[in-house]
Automatic annotation (TrEMBL):
One of its GO terms (molecular function) is sulfurtransferase activity. The lineage of its organism: Bacteria, Bacillati, Actinomycetota, Actinomycetes, Micromonosporales. It comes from Actinocatenispora rupis. This is ATP-dependent sacrificial sulfur transferase LarE. InterPro entries: HAD-like_sf, HAD_2, HAD_sf, LarE, Ni-pincer_cofactor_biosynth, PGP-like_dom2, Rossmann-like_a/b/a_fold. Transmembrane segments: none annotated. Gene3D superfamilies: HAD superfamily/HAD-like (3.40.50.1000), HUPs (3.40.50.620), Putative phosphatase, domain 2 (1.10.150.240). CDD domains: LarE-like. Pfam families: HAD_2 (PF13419), Hydrolase_like (PF13242).
Length: 497
């Protein structure tokens, strides 16, 4: 048994972040008139107060200037000595009307965008925590943290304490708090403050509402993360890139060549039965276009018991073989660093034992450390004019073999032939498939995955699927192509048995 086989499969599935990685993304949001239109709720509570107290409160004026703490506003209508009792009464009344709130445009999508960027959303508001929590629960917002009773400098303190890098608010006081905390500050003109006033207060960007926030956040983070990537690469000096030819490693190779110079970068594409021949040719052409030296060392993952056995941790042994081959090669070249194209999405994608194997062998992950997502890598690749910017995902052929079925060169070649044959047939039939996988399920036959929108068209062409009759039963997955689909068999094996 190989040394990697002995210590591999039970070490966990992901590696800890590098010490020089960008800090985790935390985005702070104000509540009233940023996430929620709470004016109907507040107005209703003030009308009850006015009726009970006999005080003539201009409710329209109150709801036009939301932002400052409740006692400050009530102090405009009641004597100072009465304000504490009125505050208590207001908070007793308030919950009855929470259901009248309205979610502002773009909010749901903005919270989802933070999650997609692997970040945490926090709410920092002047509203009392109990009332703020009722609003969040009623709206169904799942936020990582709620900080209430924070105003002006208190908001700045909360943003600093929670390591926020972005704050979104509708009041000039929100902008002041963001600037005081040194974070990227977004103003939204959904409250009583105009866009011009928010800009004058120093907002980095001002939006009509949060509809455009996902794009603004992505642009801000992309610039920040690309700068971090380039700083990281510059500090490495020289680099050997584990170059599969996919979009991620291609972008890393191109950036390394730009930052370090082509002579200080080497691309290494491992040649083995799990690599389709077409991928090797494309990788060589790409490296040549960059003026980067391209090496093609042979790897022998088939010699590893854990790889051939094809249990759920197969990728550990594959990556171990790769790094155990590239590490000595880099040393021979005088290069102290080997980099993989692991990105930020990979690091949170669940079961990824290969990441652990690479970490244990000292591989660096500049894309992951910079926080770059797959979408951002594709966007930046397109801006650089890289041919790989829209290249479909192309995992190794072993990923097509269901766990528990022993991997052999013959099985890999059969899958490669099947995918090439089916792709050509679908193209000739006018079905422009982009992502295509033929999954070998052993005695259960084969499962074909294609782009979700093409599933009905492909499923209807049983004549084309007949080309795969040596697999036995062939089905088309109604959920369409998705990376890591074989991992689903670890938790729901009965679906395909």
């Amino acid at each position: 048994m190989n040394a990697a086989d002995r210590h591999g499969p039970h070490q966990g599935t992901t590696a800890p972040a590098a010490p020089h990685a960008l800090p985790p993304l935390v985005v702070g949001f104000d509540l009233d008139m940023t996430l929620l239109d709470t004016r109907p709720v507040i107005g209703a509570a003030y009308r009850v107060l006015a009726a009970e107290s006999g005080v003539d409160i201009d409710v329209d004026l109150v709801v036009s200037r939301l932002g400052p703490p409740l006692p400050d506003e009530l102090g405009n209508w009641f004597p100072a000595e009465q304000v504490p009792a009125i505050v208590d009464r207001y908070r007793e009344i308030y919950p009855r009307f929470v259901a009248e709130q309205q979610v502002l445009p773009g909010v749901v999508e903005s919270l989802a965008a933070v999650r997609a960027q692997h970040g945490r959303s926090i709410v920092v508001t002047a509203k009392h925590p109990d009332g703020a929590r009722r609003h969040l629960d009623a709206a169904g917002f799942d936020v990582a943290e709620l900080i209430g009773s924070a105003w002006a400098g208190g908001k700045a303190t909360a943003l600093t304490e929670h390591a926020a890098s972005v704050y979104v608010g509708d009041h000039t006081a929100d902008i002041a708090a963001g600037r005081q905390a040194g974070v990227y500050t977004v103003g939204v003109a959904t409250g009583g403050i105009t866009a011009e006033e928010l800009a004058a207060a120093g907002a980095d960007v001002v939006l009509d509402d949060l509809t455009a926030f996902p794009a603004v956040l992505d642009e801000y983070l992309r610039g920040r993360r690309l700068a971090a990537l380039r700083d990281h690469l510059a500090g490495l000096g020289t680099l050997l890139v584990a170059f599969s030819g996919g979009a991620d490693s291609a972008f890393l190779l191109a950036e390394a060549a730009r930052v370090l110079g082509p002579d200080n970068v080497v691309a290494a594409t491992a040649v083995s039965p799990s690599l389709p021949d077409s991928e090797l040719t494309a990788a060589a052409e790409f490296a040549a276009g960059l003026g980067v030296r391209h090496l093609t060392p042979r790897t022998d993952e088939m010699a590893r018991d854990g790889y051939r056995a094809n249990a759920g941790d197969r990728c550990y042994f594959c990556k171990a073989e790769l790094l155990d081959t590239l590490g000595p090669l880099a040393a021979e070249l005088g290069m102290p660093h080997v980099a993989t194209g692991t990105n930020a999405d990979d690091a949170v994608a669940g079961f990824r034992p290969g990441i652990r194997a690479a970490h244990e062998r000292g591989a660096v992950t500049p894309l992951r450390d910079a926080g770059l997502t797959k979408a951002q890598i594709r966007h930046a690749s397109r801006e650089l004019g890289l041919s790989t910017w829209d290249k479909p995902a192309a995992a190794c052929l072993s990923s097509r073999i269901a766990y528990g079925i022993q991997i052999s060169p013959d099985r890999l070649r059969r899958v490669e032939r099947a995918e090439a044959t089916l792709r050509a047939a679908l193209t000739d039939a006018g079905i422009p498939v982009r992502n295509l996988r033929v999954r070998d399920l052993g005695d259960a036959g084969a499962r074909v995955e294609v782009d979700r929108e093409l599933v009905p068209a492909v499923a209807a062409r049983t004549d084309l699927l007949a080309a795969l009759d040596d697999f036995g039963t062939v089905t088309v997955d109604d959920r369409g192509f998705r990376s890591g689909a074989m991992n689903e068999l670890l938790t729901e094996p009965s679906r395909y048995r």
